[in-house]
Amino acid sequence: MKTEQYISQLLYRYQCVTVPGFGAFLTDIQSAQWHEKSNAFYPPKKSISFNSYLKNNDGLLANHIATAEKTTYENAVLSIENEVTAWKNSLQNNGKIALKNIGELSLNTEGSLVFTPYEQPNYLKAAFGLSSFVSPAVKREVSLQEVEITKEEPILITLEKRKRNPYLKYAAILVLAVAVTGSVGFKLYQDKIETDTLLVQTDVQKQVQNKIQEATFFIANPLPSVTLTVKEEKMPYHVVAGAFRQEENAEKTLEELNKKGFKAKRIAPNRNGLFPVLYGSYPSYAMAQTAMHEIQKSDNPDAWLLIEEL
């Protein structure tokens, strides 16, 4: 049985596919890209990464294999264990293994797993049928129009001298005097209007204040109260402390985590009849992964990540 075939099938539908006892393959949506130097365009895709810390069995791969092979869940788990043993032996002997349509796993000098994903296939279903292509650069031609400049002869303008009329000077002085007198009279008229307007406004304000003091406000038909409903944020990423056969052990672990300050909680038993206990739930994969690494360092090295909308 080729386990990588079933892993590849699940990567189209799920963000995380865990291989019990080995690690988990994670997907992240990558937007379309353009390579400036080569003018190559690449469609959006799911990039694949590997996390060797996620080893706990979440049942996804085993159930898929059991359904596809028409066998029991226990036989599927046993088949995965045998395949994982073969992978580890191949890594020790050859230093690397190749998983078809997924990528290549190898050991570095420190003995840690290094994952190199294959570029094909694209696990993003929304980008099905799209492929990369190279577009030739667009060359734009700039045409310069010749402009003929003609030199024109300057035009000379000769001003005619006219005789001044002395009577016009006295007429202008008379008009100016009349204008000054009119402006002074108009200013006095405006001041009188502003004074009268201020008196009227003051009287109106006093009447309004008296009416307000005497008024009694009464609402015959009050509006009904409005209840605002805030949509609860989804938290599909959970850091799991463990899944227990006995409910008493799950309840005991829950109390211990709460005493330590975690926002721990229990969820409904899973399909295998186990009682899971969570350290907490998070709205994004990045937040959950950061919390899991901190918990693995400080409290529980076996803590693992569960992705499920509860």
Return the string of H and E elements: HEEEEEHHEEEEHEHEEHE
- Main beta sheet strand tally, sense and closure: 4 strands, antiparallel
- How many beta-strand runs? 13
Give the quaternary arrangement of the chains: single chain
Percent strand? 15-25%
Class inferred from helices and paired strands: alpha+beta
Morphology call: flat
Overall mean pLDDT = 77
Q: Evaluate the radius of gyration.
A: 42 Å
Please specify the SSE layout and strand pairing.
Elements: H1 3-11, E1 16-19, E2 23-30, E3 33-35, E4 40-42, E5 45-51, H2 60-69, H3 73-94, E6 96-99, E7 103-107, E8 113-117, E9 133-134, H4 166-214, E10 237-244, H5 247-259, E11 265-266, E12 275-282, H6 285-298, E13 304-307
Antiparallel strand pairs: 1-2, 2-5, 3-4, 4-9, 6-7, 7-8, 10-12, 10-13, 11-12
Defining key terms:
three-stranded antiparallel β-sheet; four-stranded antiparallel β-sheet
Give a written overview of the molecule.
By secondary structure, the protein is an alpha+beta fold. The protein has 6 helices and 13 strands. The strands form 4 sheets. Strands 11-12-10-13 form a 4-stranded antiparallel sheet. Strand 1 and strand 2 form a beta hairpin.
